[in-house]
Write the C-alpha cells for this entry.
Amino acid sequence: MNPLALFDLLTREEFQTGLVCGLFAVAALLLVRKAGWLLLWGIAAVVALSASGFLRASPSSPAWAPYAAAVAVLAVALAFRTLARDVPAWAAGAAFALWVLGVWGAVPDTERAGVAMGVTAALLPCLWPGLRIRLGWEGMLLAAGVLGFVALADGAARPPSIVGALGMVGMPVAAAIASRRAGPRGAPSPAWFVGAMGVHVIVCGRVAGQQHDLRLALLVSCLSALATGAGLVLLGGSRPGTDRR
C-alpha cells in the first residue's frame, strides 16, 4: 500500500461521493443516537455506490468468489456479534475501518473501494469513545455484505486479491472462537484487538499482491488469522465488562 496513493485518493470523485454520503450519515447518527454506526455506514455506502453507478456495472469475478464472500460475510458478522460483550464499540468500529482500508489496499481496481474509504473517512471520527455512539451490531451484516461486494468487484482482475481482502475477516473470527473457549479471562484487550487486526490486514494485503497462487494466498491468510486471533486472546486478554453497544 503506497502512502502517496492515499493523498491521490482524496482528489478522486468516488472518494468524494462516499465522503458526502458519509457526512449525511454522520448527521443522522448525531440526531438519532439509537441508529447504529454500522447500519448507517452500510446505507451510506450503498447510496454512494449507487450514485456513482458502481452497482449497475460490476466486473465478473471467479465462480468460487461469491460463495467465499458469503461465507466470509456471515462469519465476520457472527464473530463481531460474539465479541460484542468483550470488545468496546470504538475498538470494533476501528477494526472494521481497518478492513475497509485493507480492501482498498488489496484490490487492483479501487473505484468501489474508494467509495467505501470516503464513507469511512466521514464516519470514523464518530467512533471517538467520548461521543458514546452506538455501534449497532444489527447493521454488521449489511456493512460486511457491502464490503464483500466491493472486494469481489474491485478484485476481479486479480483473484488472490479477493482471497486477501476476504481473508482479513479471519482475525476477528479466530479471536471470537478463542475467547469463547478461553472463557471470561480470555476477553481481548481493546487496544490489542485493534493492533492485531492491523497486523493481519497488512499480512493479507501482501498476500493480495500475488498474481496466481491462490492456495498460497489462502494458506498465509489462514495462518495469519490463527496467529493474530488466537495470540490476541492468549497474550492480550483483559477483564470483561466492556461496552456492549
Observations:
- The CA atoms of residues 183 and 240 lie 10 Å apart.
- The mean pLDDT is 87.
